[in-house]
């Protein structure tokens, strides 16, 4: 997507968002249509091409029309029927395929040029590689020496609002959603007269790394866009954690979170507008987490 | 108190009861992360030997977090029956294990002794049990509780209906609810994990559940698993809630990370008894999981099994209707693979029952763990054999909101028919009336959510 067309979409979404939601949470969106299955007479069709929403196998449904209508509102595996008390073969194999792709996604790193392509600086925690990342969350909270000095240099004046991006447990989530979400937050805040500092990318970061970041940079509100651990076939889900005046060792309950940011959950651009609202509230009320009743 | 032994002429000496407890644990990645695990397999066994000779009094005198420093320790010690404790304090942990396993020791006898146990004692005996010991011992201990219906009855397996949705879309939640009920899921509770933890959202979902439950006369209980403070505000504003949920930890610091105190839970319980919609007297629902204390640096240098046992000791004060470990949710840094998740699931279930609380298990895994659906099916069969009160029920075991996998709707009837169990009585009767269950088998209507779409 080009910068200009993204900007246009954000403007439209933000405009419609403020037209209907003054203080509301994100509204439901219709999932984007998937690709149409390709026909190849030599091959068994790709079972993952059927959307969960359109898959229906209940043989003598009492009210099929209503069933199908309800199914449009959820990607949950409903209307799948059964073999005795067990799953049908197609449901079983589809589940296995979706699990396989999610597992494969966990172990992929965010592309090396992800940050530089956006003009962002990349820094790293003290973690050196993926397996260490998965088993040592304690180290994923601490930025390495180079990161500390880079951030000190780049943010010599403490910003009011700092938004940064971190890989977390899904590289795909961040690669797909982080940029659009950031742009939408930036625009949402701009409309409220609040400026945002230049973002950066933190590799091998856990959520509490944002407290270390807050201390280094001195930002009033610190926000991280971070990959969630993947669900079945939804490696694209990203979360946004926010804290007011974060400090190393502060309670998790002081964070405000917006989760499920992906095209079938809350889409990036819409999430950005919602996040901008929350950031404004945090600045006004000077608090976050359970103290901030949304 | 002897903290020293040798195996094959190698001497092993420990410095504290806390260290013995930690090193006697079966291997867990979380204990390694905390730096408290045994260094070698032999050291682990040496710690078990030392532990087997500690008396319950030795353990009583050495809680892993001091009474003066920690609210959870105080809750557990203040609620202890001192007469029963005095009767058993001279027992060694090894003898205690054998007493539990003795054919002549009944569930009632264990439940009485349980009133004289601290959570560290519960954890200690668990560390000496093999997996089959944990299944066999837990099976003896039946713990019932009553909200609108009774959970934990003889030959009953309950299932929580968990109709989670990525955006809390009401139709999306509703179709999962309808379909789950048609499979015989939802007798334990209908409980949604909300995406948006707001009073307005909690009220909206509870009202929808309540209206459905009334229309179809479903004998069960309902809950929205937001933060306790959000639920309380919703109830004060008139939301129809049967239960109040909260995640809890095994130390005060861990509970602070969840934004809760014992007083807050007491207030919540009193509120739901006064303004909730259920019969009671059991109106609380708690979730736990090995490793949650370490994840908020609130483990005080103790191992994750002991900290988990302390959650149950803490939960007991509030007379819960449901307590379940979400074993496997937290990830590979605490439970590395399927072997560790299975062990933890069996430990947690046994420890809950030995503590005297109505224990269920969310048998689950995440996609960054070395486990899959086959492993969780194995664990569900083991736990059903162990008399587990309830599991979770999710469409095909795929939680689209929490991004993890657990037991699905289809496991409910499979496990029940396999091991000769039924849903909670009133719910089973309702299924028969609805034509979903006949002579213990699902009918052609089961699996068709649209029977409720009118």
Question: Can you lay out the helices and strands and say which pair or pack?
Answer:
The complex is a heterodimer of chains A (294) and B (454).
Chain A lengths: L2 H18 L43 H8 L17 H18 L7 H4 L3 E4 L5 H6 L9 H10 L6 E6 L4 H21 L8 E4 L5 H9 L3 E7 L10 E7 L11 E6 L6 H18 L9
Parallel strand pairs in A: 1-3, 2-3, 2-4
Antiparallel strand pairs in A: 4-5, 5-6
Chain B lengths: L3 E4 L2 E4 L3 H7 L5 H6 L6 H13 L2 H5 L10 H8 L3 H7 L4 H9 L5 H8 L4 H9 L3 H10 L4 E2 L3 E2 L6 E4 L8 H13 L6 E4 L6 H18 L5 E3 L3 H9 L7 E4 L4 H6 L4 H14 L8 E5 L3 H4 L8 H13 L5 E4 L12 H18 L3 E3 L11 H13 L4 E4 L4 E2 L4 E2 L3 H10 L6 H9 L3 E2 L2 E2 L12
Parallel strand pairs in B: 5-6, 5-12, 6-7, 8-9, 9-10, 10-11
Antiparallel strand pairs in B: 1-2, 3-4, 13-14, 15-16
Helix pairs in contact in B: 1-3, 5-17, 7-9, 9-17, 9-18, 10-18, 12-13, 13-15, 17-18, 18-19
Structure, described:
- The complex is a heterodimer of chains A (294) and B (454).
- Chain A is of the alpha/beta class.
- Chain A folds into two domains: 51-107, DNA Binding (I), subunit A (Orthogonal Bundle), CATH 1.10.30.40; 116-291, Ethanolamine ammonia-lyase light chain (EutC) (Rossmann fold, 3-Layer(aba) Sandwich).
- Chain A has nine helices and six strands; from the N terminus they run ααααβααβαβαβββα.
- A six-stranded mixed beta sheet of chain A has the order 1-3-2-4-5-6, sandwiched between helices.
- In chain A, strand 2 (161-166), helix 7 (171-191) and strand 3 (200-203) form a beta-alpha-beta unit.
- The longest helix of chain A has 21 residues, at 171-191.
- The radius of gyration of chain A is 21 Å and the shape is globular.
- The two termini of chain A are 33 Å apart.
- In chain A, 48% of the residues are buried.
- Chain B is of the alpha/beta class.
- Chain B has 21 helices and 16 strands.
- Chain B has helices spanning 17-23, 29-34, 41-53, 56-60, 71-78, 82-88, 93-101, 107-114, 119-127, 131-140, 170-182, 199-216, 228-236, 252-257, 262-275, 292-295, 304-316, 338-355, 373-385, 409-418, 425-433; strands spanning 4-7, 10-13, 145-146, 150-151, 158-161, 189-192, 222-224, 244-247, 284-288, 322-325, 359-361, 390-393, 398-399, 404-405, 437-438, 441-442.
- In chain B, the strands form six sheets. In chain B, strands 7-6-5-12 form a four-stranded parallel beta sheet, covered by helices on one side. Chain B has a four-stranded parallel beta sheet with strand order 8-9-10-11.
- In chain B, helix 9 packs across helix 18 and helix 10 (131-140) runs parallel beside helix 18 (338-355).
- Chain B is globular, with a radius of gyration of 21 Å.
- The chains are: A alpha/beta (294), B alpha/beta (454).
- At the A-B interface, helix 2 and helix 3 of A face helix 11, strand 13, strand 14 and helix 20 of B.
